[in-house]
Amino acid sequence: MPSNSSALTAISPIDGRYQQKTQPLAQFFSEYALIKYRVTVEIEWLKSLSEST
């Protein structure tokens, strides 16, 4: 997870004021996390498809 704060790691607009409290959640609920886990699922799906043919 990137350590710097950006639009991809922000959970919502409250991240500015409450960053200390929301930072642990960013690894699961941020835009970056969505992209990361979506790519992980797609890779596993492609691996599964390649094994079944």
Provide a descriptive summary of the structure in words:
- The chain has 53 residues and is mostly helical.
- It has a domain of 28 residues.
- Helices cover 62% and strands 0% of the residues.
- The protein is built from two helices and no strands.
- Helix 1 runs parallel beside helix 2.
- The longest helix is centred in the last third of the chain and has 22 residues.
- The protein is rod-shaped, with a radius of gyration of 15 Å.
- The termini are far apart.
Order of helices and strands: HH
Shape: rod-shaped
Mean pLDDT: 82
The helix tally amounts to: 2
Number of E strands? 0
Computed Rg = 15 Å
Helix-strand makeup class: mainly alpha
**Beta fraction of the residues?**
under 5%
Terminal Cα span? 35 Å
Uncertain spans: none
Query: Quick one: biggest sheet?
Result: none
Helix content: 55-70%
Topology, element by element:
Layout: H1 19-29, H2 31-52
Descriptive keywords:
rod-shaped, mainly alpha, about 60% helix, about 55 residues, single chain, 2 helices, about 0% strand
Give a concise summary.
The protein is mainly alpha-helical.
